[in-house]
Amino acid sequence: MLYVSWFLLGLALAAPVGPVTIVQISRGLQGGFRAAWLVGVGGMGADLLMMLLVAAGFSRLPDIWWIEPILWAAGGIVLFYLGIDSIRTGRRQLPELSGAETARAGSSLRTGFLLAAANPMNLVFWAGIYGSVLVSIEDRGSAAAAAATACIFLGIIVWDLASAAVIAYSRRFITPRRMQYISISAGLILLGFALAFFWAIFQGFY
Predict the structure, then answer these.
(1) At how many degrees (to 10) do helices 120-136 and 33-55 cross?
(2) pLDDT, tens digit, for every residue of 43-74?
(3) CB 148 within 8 A of CB 133
(4) Which of 15, 55, 135, 173 is deepest in the core (most CB within 10 A)?
């Protein structure tokens, strides 16, 4: 039963909509299942990195005064670039599926990783959630910690696969004109996240 609860925790952790989800939807509607799935895989790679950092004791890293603004700035730059790119894509007439979109699918893995890794709140988030799980089972040894990690990550994988499948299926209902609107809207949302990241830097100094 404990394994099931960890699996459900993984599902719940992957469900909230953030920058990675926005890009996953935009890329998936343009490039299909593979593009959407690879964005999620990139995000999962960053999640795994965060979990390893928490397990290794680096959960307080963002609290260092000069590291936090660097992380916020890096995340803001990545989000700003992707937002502008999504808006530019939306301003063009989009074909149903082209070689260019297939090529974009190849960059989806890197995009998902950068989006998740450049968000300093991810490390804080995993420190609170995953760190609490590790503390609750520390008396059970490393095997229990490994099992908890695997179950949580399995939940994230299942959510990513399901999301990519739903997005890919939805393509048949999306016209090129609607895809343009979706791409531009996704870009504006990403720019909003970028501004929030830059604002966090300002708040940190004042």
Answers:
(1) 60
(2) 999 988 888 888 787 766 656 667 778 878 88
(3) yes
(4) 55
Q: Is the pTM of this model over 0.90?
A: no
CA distance 171 to 141: 46
* Other Cβ atoms closer than 10 A to 176: 11
The whole domain housing 196 covers 2-205
- Written as one string, the DSSP assignment of the chain is -HHHHHHHHHHHHH-S--HHHHHHHHHHHHH-HHHHHHHHHHHHHHHHHHHHHHHTT-TTGGGSTTHHHHHHHHHHHHHHHHHHHHHHHHHSPPPSS-HHHHHHHHHHHHHHHHHHHT-HHHHHHHHHHHHHHHHHTGGG-HHHHHHHHHHHHHHHHHHHHHHHHHHHHHGGG--HHHHHHHHHHHHHHHHHHHHHHHHHHHHHH-
Q: What is the identity of the amino acid at 40?
A: G
Number of domains in the chain: 1
